[in-house]
What does this fold into?
Amino acid sequence: MEKHYQIVVVGGGFAGAAAAISAARMGKNVLLIEKYNCLGGAAVYDLVNPFMGNWTHDPENGGVLVDLSRGLFTEIVDRLDRLGGKSTVCGITFSEEILKYVLNTMAIESGVQLLYQTYVTAVNKEGDRIRSLTVSNVSGSCEIEADCFIDATGDANLAYLARCPYRVGREGDGLCQPMTLCFRLGNVKIPPKSDYKTRINRLYREYQAEGKIKNPRENILVFPTLLDSVLHFNTTRVVKLDPTNAEDVTRAEIIAREQVFELYNFLRENFEEFRDSVLLSTGMQIGARESRMIDGEYVLTQEDLLAFSKFEDSIAVCNYDIDIHSPDGSGTSHYYFPDGQYYGIPYRCLLPKKANNLLVAGRCISATHEAQASVRIMPTCCNLGEAAGVAAALAVENSVAPREIDVNRLQSILRANGAKLD
Ligand SMILES: Cc1cc2nc3c(=O)[nH]c(=O)nc-3n(C[C@H](O)[C@H](O)[C@H](O)COP(=O)(O)OP(=O)(O)OC[C@H]3O[C@@H](n4cnc5c(N)ncnc54)[C@H](O)[C@@H]3O)c2cc1C
It folds into this structure.
């Protein structure tokens, strides 16, 4: 195996896959390292579905629908569609199995070298420059060097190992949004126009009040899937545990699995539609909506979002609501953007301090708890990854640090690839 690359991307979620594909399409020699066996990240390992909407109606243009997450994300969705892996029944519902295949295909066609089942265990620095990563896999342990690195680990693992400053959770108590183990029930018999959601939630609340349901979530959050008889549940809730602490994560996995069976039994025992249902799957791991976020060259805040701020160095735009699942119990708060309004995400949010050849993409960019609650959706993570990949390619091409690249050039390449930036 080659040990030096122009660009090494760690993490194969939406951010990492998009970063690697966009950098490789700029002719760079790119390695993508992923600890599991495929691309897709939270969409596949955490069983997260559907893609939340990042679009708006333009009131100045007859209310026409404007898609804010164009570029590689559009290409992924189109490819999913062509293979029968997408439906628009609720946001964009997709098949994670087809997504795995689509992303593999796109990465390989673009010339990305993939290294699966490999975990980055250390970052080796010389001053503020990262020289190499230490990785561990079935072959043993080795060092991999690169000119430029991209941290798309969701947990800012590379930035953490590189001793870059970061934050965890909300200001004040440091609590993160809850962790959730998603699951699917099959052989569910829901007739068309059924009011089942109202009925199950009414009884759920009664059971909760009587202490028969321990899950602190205020209601049952359930989505359709590509199959009528299969429902997707994003509804377990584990609060006040730290997603960056391995022991807490283990406890969270155990608590959430209890909640899956609590819900499954509740539905089977009380509702005809679920009487013969089968627990088809749970996520391979509990999902963390929020964990480490770098403290980068710019910190995106709730104030920026509420002012619909656009920045000279915007590399993505977003208007998904500020969607905060309570970090300490029941409740979910939302701020919905008015029609036609959205905010920009500055390139500086991808630049950590204390590592000058590192970019960060995805849900761990530099943002506060509140701002991250909007940025974190898969379409936006994909846009951020695409921007990081192009930026890394420009840095390597011009032998400069990512913070020194020509941001106008970055924006014009993203626009040429379909992105909406203003
Ligand atoms: C429960 C839950 C529900 C959600 N619901 C929705 C929803 O309905 N719609 C929506 O659009 N978004 C939703 N989100 C948000 C969204 O799924 C994530 O924020 C987004 O997918 C994150 O993408 P990412 O690429 O930044 O990180 P990830 O998808 O987490 O990818 C990070 C990758 O890095 C790999 N990795 C980490 N550390 C290492 C290491 N040291 N070495 C090698 N590889 C490593 C991981 O295996 C993973 O593949 C939800 C999230 C959760 C947790």
User: Anything to note?
Assistant: The chain has a mean pLDDT of 97.
